[in-house]
Structures
1.
Amino acid sequence: MSLLQVRDLGVSLRTRKVLNDISFNVAAGEMIGLIGPNGAGKTTLMRAILGLVPFRGVSSLAQVPPAQRGKHAAWMPQAREIAWPVDVRTLVALGRIPHQGTGAQIAPEDTAAVERALDHMGLADFADRTATRLSGGEQARVLIARALAQETPLLMADEPVAGLDPHHQISTMRCFADLAQAGTSVIVSLHDLGLAARHCTRLLVVHEGELVADGVPQEVLTPELLRDVFGISAWARMTEDGFVLQPLSAL
Amino acid sequence: MSRLMMCLIAVLFALVTASFLIGPAALGVGESVAALVNGGDTPAAMVMREIRLPRVLLALMIGASLGLAGAAMQGYLRNPLADPGLIGVSGSAALGAVLSIQIGIAGSVAFALPAFALGGALIGVFAVLLLAGPRGSSLTLILAGIAISALAGALTSLVLNLSPNPFAANEIVFWMMGSLADRSMVHVAIALPLIAVGAVMLLSLKRGLDALTLGEDAAAAMGINLHRLRLTLIFGTAAVVGASTAVAGAIGFVGLVVPHILRPFVGARPGALLWASALGGAIMLLAADIAVRMILPERDLKLGVLTAIVGAPLFLHLIYRTRREGL
């Protein structure tokens, strides 16, 4: 049974068609990279799937009543907003909001989920620090931990690794891949094709509002697609460490 | 109950007691309490039940209203400089009150002034909604609020400008400074239902305001209905601030300063700040009302003047501290 079905999804902002006839299914345990050039419609696609923008067609997630959606999917927007100087544990605990009723007390399973998420992102030592005083990369990890604490079958993140150092880029992608292996499906939008090729089990390529490719990285990232969609050439090989892709030059 | 909550309640209790005991009628402690509890036709009972009791109740209600609305507005806009007056309710309530003084009905019918002020607040809030749209962003709400405040301010000035009667103009100016002097239980009865309803609405925003710490998109994806949250905020604020302005005039800075002072004590959580700011607002207004009676008892120092004189430097200090911490 698939976790998410998207059928003939289209979005128009004002009169301009931003997305057109997008269809795909997501099964449990997939690690999906959503790639495409700037302005291709990646963010709009994810927001439409979540029911945050009006759209045509079908998204199985948007059919869930809005108050329940937070139990099915966690969403990490690209803007890493932390409005108030709360401590890290409090911020991560915000991910439990969909599981708590109005005014409900914090249940033991909520506390446990928060601690698991903190451990998962290696933030146990940061738990009592003020989130707004952390560095940009640390804040990004705190916000990922917040999404993890939501403990949903589906996790969607918009450019979660942008602005992180190589160590944390790789460990974040590994973390998502581990979650996928444990059964949670992950959809991340990415600009780094090398990370996408290496860590994702499946890539969706969006170009000018259309889904132009959908498949495993080594089949999707052909020289023709890289030229037509991204305007670049790249070196790509299947190595003993898996599929490796290094962009070379802009065409 | 947290330690902060207990501290605030203890201070509030002390100030309520002090407020009951301070006044030009020199009553002893025992005498005051007996008169308040037993009632009757004695002058002491009249003073306690009809002068001091409404004053204490109004200070509690209005202070809590302003603190709560300020915390909710700051939480929604995610901006520590937001103020409950931002959506134009206090300005339009003041315009309604000023009109009732100008046409003379305020002098002849006891509840005409608060009724006119509430009418003004209602028109103001619908004008803001009409301008901002029911689904617009927080930015359109701020802009609509500024526009309505400016318009209400201009119309208030026009009324003053065209006032043929210097006594009415004088009364208007003094009313606009905000005060709790010479209010009766009628004022309490007018304001209480609206403040109670508005406060319940604002307190229900706790979960949504917490979620908004992560931004509007993340909050919406967690199941927070932002459309409903916004309407609840606008109507809740309009109810408590409109009712407060209707019975006490414009009292500034409480809604701005109190949430700002208390934020560090609740770990900056916007939901927890709602309760704390309601208590803190009541404390600040009670303390200010005691102060106006003690500093210049014979000159009728206006409450709104004092809160602004104390509040503005306090606010400047807070801005300075915020800047230094680089937040």
Note: Chain A has nine helices and eleven strands.
2.
Amino acid sequence: MIRVLGPLVRAVLLLAAALLPSAWPAGLARPDLVLLVVAGVALLHPPRVGLLVGLAGGWLVDVVPPGAAPLGASALAYAAVGLGLGAVRRQLVLSPVLPWLATAAAAALVLGARGVSAAAGVGRALPGELAWTLGVTMLVAVVVLPLVMGLERWMTRRGWA
Amino acid sequence: MPRRTTLLAVLLTGASAAVLVVDLARPGLAAPVRAGAAAALAPVQEALAGWDDGRVAELTAERDALAAEVDRLREQAQDAAELQQLARSSTVAAVDRTLLPARVVAFAPGSSPVGGRTVTIDVGSTDGVLPDQTVVAVDGLVGRVLRVAPTSADVLLLGDPQVVVGVRFGEEGALGDVQADAAPGLPARGHGQLTLTALGDTAVETGARVETLGSPDDVPYAAGIPLGRVVSVDPDRGQLGRTAVVEPFVDTDTLDLVAVVLREEP
């Protein structure tokens, strides 16, 4: 029964991450909070957990208004991030900077996919915007990533997750 | 336990991929999902975005309404003059619009794999908003309504690749269209800049004002709404129709208060 608490806390975190950009001032690049939550969880658990959290986060990105099209594309992208970070998590324990760098690489890949699809004529993304989003996300990650990972470690110790 | 989680993960990933394919094939099928999410989450977004509610919002809405009124009256005066000149009343749409003020409560995610330009506003079908209505701000055209939920609506912004607006430009009101993507071979566009393609042989001049052409029943764009200004004309590289760079009047990155153009019941 207590193992339900971990997924519940993660669901609340993801929902907050998907909704908080509404409170962000207009005109500033918005950090990708959902990716940071997915990364924070995925970096401490087996790949399948990262995959599930990534799917859930991506689905939220897809359906929280105004949403993204086509439905399911973000879900698969964030699931890939969760899977990838979960797979390399053991190599990242050497230095506390490595998880941050791995998250930066994951964020760059997700934004890269957006850039490539825009270059292929689907959607629109300008290089400057992508760079700003990546910069702001990684700046916010300095605070948010350790917080999420700390919470995950705490929940793991208590047997919640 | 891990086996079950792995199985669940694989199943859900497969389901997501299936939904992706279905949504690509039949884009309208997922509308109830989006409407449900909007009905549940838009109130939270409104609460989160409403940090400066009250007097400022009220005055800004009033100012927007007045500016729109001035635009409308100017439009009416111009229409009247043109009507007199042309004596062809059937070609010019009557200007009878009501504006419904709205606030932007959420922007499209900046990192979804396909980049779209949409925002959510805090009025919906209960306020009389319908899909494909025009959305304006104090400076000019913002976009059109894409989806409507009971208390919120998603707006497709000018600058989204799906948006193509029929326009009149210059003093003579030559015809053309404005869209985000430039044809291959043209100089790169700056942030937020759009491409005007002239219909026919009309010369495009830098500084020319671009306004919407309008469509029957104002769907999806009402006529005579200021859109932007021509900032440079592209070199002639054999493209069909002259092209130019248009700087829109409205910066869609910093949208706050907008208005939906409602049609008055006859």
Note: Chain A touches chain B through 55 residues (CB under 8 Å).
3.
Amino acid sequence: MSEHIVSKNLYFLIFGALMVLTAITVGVAFVNLGPLNNVVALTIAVIKALLVILYFMHVRYSSRLTWLVIVGGFFWLAIMFVLTSSDYLTRGWVSFTR
Amino acid sequence: MSSINSPFDKPFEQPVDSPGGRMRPVPAERNYLNADYSVRSWLLTKDHKRIALLYLFSVSFFFFIGSIYAMLIRLELLTPKGDLVQAATYNKLFTHHGIIMIFLFLIPSIPAILGNFLVPLMIGAKDLAFPKINLLSWYLYMIGAVIVSSAIMIGGVDTGWYFYVPYSSNFSNTYVTLAGLGIFVLGFSSILTGLNFIVTTHTMRAPGMTWFRLPLFIWSHYATSLIMLLGTPVIAITLLLLVFERTFHVGIFDPTIGGDPVLFQHLFWFYSHPAVYIMLLPGMAIISEIIATFSRKNIFGYKFVAFSSIAIAVFGFLVWGHHLFSSSQSVFAGMIFSFISFAVAVPSAIKVFNWTATLFRGSISYDTPMLYALGYIGLFAIGGLTGLFLASLGMDVHLTDTYFVVAHFHYVMVGGTLLAYLGGIHYWWPKITGRLYPEGWGRFSALIVFVGFNLTFFPQFLLGFLGMPRRYHAYPPEYQVLNVLSSAGASILAIGFTIPLIYLLWSLRYGPKATDDPWMATGLEWRTSSPPPTENFVETPIVTWEAYEFAPQETMKVVGKLTPDDKPDRSSYSGN
Amino acid sequence: MATQTLNHADAHHDAAHDEEHHPGLAHHFDNMEQQRDSGTLGMWVFLVTEIMFFGGMFLAYMLFRASNPNEFAAGSYQLDVLLGGINTAVLIGSSLTMALAVFFAQTGNKSLLVLFLLATILLGFVFLGIKAVEYGTKFSHGTIPGRNFKVEHKKMEEYEEHHHGDAAANVDPARLQMFFVIYFMLTGVHALHMIIGIGVMSVLVFFALRNRYSPEYHSHIELAGLYWHFVDIVWIFLFPLLYLIGRH
């Protein structure tokens, strides 16, 4: 069996990290950082998601195919966001009328 | 009996002279069709081949319903005045035609019927990876189909098959919600089929069946499955939002309270443009098989054709904005989408060129499947190239919502997908049923379909270019000649579809028995009996030849006896 | 002519041999490893479709927030950050118990497997209970999107006081609804996924009690775990995006 068993202590460690990051994200939200608020909140959320994916979901120990599937999924999500934004952000850049 | 080449003669009893000098009754060969005759064994089957047949019956039924709507539309357009039906009824006619043909016929047709039947056979597996999920997907299809049909029967839908807001959300008082829910369920059916194909292709291949020995049919279905998986969830959420908007009047797509109707178009076409390739790629899958078999040559540039399928799947997701050129989408984004749309032509052209190059100096035989395939290449080329007209930003503003668009996508969908589907049904009919269809009638009806198709849709290019808009039940008298031609063509086309229905049903009882490999083709599906046994192969096959290698048949025997602890080639993904 | 070499990995054969008659092995698979790999891949592929499903709503969120930034800040201010925070902790906790359930399935400890599955179900119910309290508050104030949408004036005044003289205080009450549309859609679909997860988990408890799982055969638990963690990840994004904008 090629299955990798993650130790219990690592699970507890990840859980602790997730709780600390949750506390940080709540704390930071009450401080006015201007546009940085969004950046910080999303960065922390991405880190938390990565921790869950890599350890709770065992992806760190998974095959390359699993990695490919996950990266592909997020890549397609990015396509949807980027190309839709390419419409909303560029309205008025070029106009039919002079 | 079965063909001289079959490695599977042994398990089945041969007719033997009994001591009395008379032939002993020959026991029928055990196959997936005669394994069990009870209704229960069909409705609860987990055999991919039987599920494929369940799909064949239900999908064909809806094809004929959709065709009836097409005939009504063409009948109305015979005369300039709207004298057959009222405008509101006409709106429902084309909406029902579109919804049925797209969601109930084109999307499931080739993958769920031929794909379901052939994917495990072609890669040498006993079944798809998740047989129960496969059966579930058929039930979801039926539930979705029943919901959509009931929406049509209790009053119908009049929004057009793409449900544009705000008409569909705030104004239409037809059964949009019910139809939307039905398509939502159909989406799950499609997702489960795609999921099964992807996993099966990765984990169920027979020993020796490497990625580049896979038939191109598998590559195309893999690409199709990618689109089903990545696109379908988005239309699911879009329709869910629409249902919410209609039910609770919450204003997601209503600009007066901060909503955004263009968002609907973005989300809708994020799925529905790639969905065009869900319909197209499986057709290409069939054509690659037929062209190779009937030219008796390896496909020219196998890897290019294989990767062009993947490229079409990927590029297909980058171009949806070309459906929004005449909405309030930014012109700059329109230019980007226009540019990328042209890029899709490259992998499509690679396929067409490589098929043509395969024909070059091949020993071509013009059997029915080949006639459909040759027709496909020509019609798909016309459909594809007119697509480039529409992908050009300026040109599209003139042609949007005219019959030019209608003709374009019918060349791709009917001239492309439907011809490929018919070609595929004929090509694998001996394998599916164990019977041969009458070849003369086959060729005759293929020609009828080709003529009828062109007569129906070529005039529509001209009509569109002259400015006739789609979706109107009346038109100025100067368009009548072309419309009459189109309606006449539709009648011929209908005859062309009816003839195969009759002779294929006839062949089930009276057709000559098929050998294991009637076309002398190369795929693994021809290395087992016709029709195949429930477990597909009596022994797990070991593949030692390349795809489309027209070697002497003895060398393509499924070699060796495989013990149960042999397993498929997985070197391609397990950690190396 | 074809190469006569076979590309399948011979190394796997010995490992595969001794488990070929496992009762959990479906007829169309050659061995347990092939079956498990198929299940895992299938689940991941399914989760990718879930990413796209939620992605559509996140896209709507992004566009609506971009066009109505103040209304989103004001709407977010009306949510209960304490309850949201507690729920985040509860859900992360349930992910931990789920991960431990998988651990005890791998190591073949049946009673602890059942215990942690039950703990996960319990935490799931706690999450849904708190969610129900939040929804109830919104219903009682009438801040439900639709024709009868009402603005909760007390909260709006608090928010305006908080942003006194600030450009962010400029809120169009009619468009405030957009925030709540997205809020109810996202959290509602998320809660539906939780309910499905709890249902699946209950079946697994039943199977586990009937000794169906062993260190060789426990894919169900792993796959349910992947699903549950995914639902957790969605919430990890929902919490800051819904509860924490417009607090400062």
Note: Confidence is low (pLDDT under 50) at residues 1-24, 559-576 of chain B.
